[in-house]
Predict the 3D structure of the following.
Amino acid sequence: MAAARRVSGTWVAVVCLAGAAMGGCTGTATSHGKRPTEHRPDGPAQTAQDSAAHCGVEVPPDSRDFLSLQDVYPATAGTKSLSTRVLLLTTADCGSGQESSGAVGTSCKAAEFPWTSPSSQNSELYASGARVWAQATLTGPQEQVLSEHVVVPYPKAKDAFVTRYRNHLKDCGAQVLSLQNGQPTDFALKGSPYLVVSFSNGRMTVLEGIGPHWKTGELQSLLGPAATRSAKFVAVA
Amino acid sequence: MKQGKMIAVAAALALTAITGGPAAAAAPVKPHSIYCPPEDDRYYQQTSSAWYAADSGTLINNSAGTISKAYTHTSNHSLTTTVAADLEVSVDYVVGHVNTSLNYSTSHTASYTTTTMFTVTAPAHTTVHYTDGILKRTILITWNHTYSNCTVKTVKDYAYLADNYSVAS
């Protein structure tokens, strides 16, 4: 389903979203740096932005790839809402020959991590090896908000991608929630927002609990289901 | 455990003349036909076990409910069960009998790949240490073969069985 194609002398990312509404595998057809102009109003990256720094192509999300409102707010009456988006960070849109720079930022404030960023930092995610960024915002009846992010690097960047983010979280003093063969796979970072992060097969799943409602345990209990559902996101470049 | 059953098919009896003169010199008394149904009895005993390959780690549950986490194996491994040739029995036979008699879950071949997942469950506010992979079980097999003349041949040798196995504590 997935492949890398050479178009006009440039390696172009071919990104597959298994199970997504795209029908499986979508090759980025453009090879001339087409900029996306269509944005969903409910996305987190819709603030005023430097369009020159923005990169990525919106594709139709499938809500089944994310946590559901029922997962997050079971048996809670009141108005709830869910918004989702999927962004492909393609070479055609984001490539600038800096793919290996591996920038992950230096801030330990959860609100300033690259995946929570305004679109102006999509290029930063791209540079770290990310090729898919999927995001869902689940708002509860008491205005509590859970933000879910799934970041998928391309295969060759997977190990370096995980190492960089893992080290960054360690440096920020994040609590290790899970280890595999001595390497942390899940983290919790206290702060505002509360943050839990899971690395699975190179894919990063992040849950941010925004507001005082959230505790590490609550977020951690949602991390497993989120990581399982996000397994459908695959990036090949 | 079954033992060879000795069956006297016929026995020669020395008969003493009830009447008459002195008895003639009797021939040596011995059974002239001893028969045992040929059979094979095998006994299985695990003498050791060791991880052939595995992923292990820790899951810390800070939440008030049970959580489950799916892990993916980080490498590819495969192990095939072997049985010493002098035991003259097939791998599948040994696997079946070991699983039945010792309640294991061995198989002809155990394997996992980097796409194989396993799930670890941790009750509320607990820390679970897990290992998931391929366990190599060393099984001592004692084979008693009973011949029809009731002699018994005993062979002891080892089989090494592959078991996809998980432990959590």
Observations:
- The two ends of chain B are 36 Å apart (CA to CA).
- Residues 29 and 92 of chain B are 48 Å apart (CA to CA).
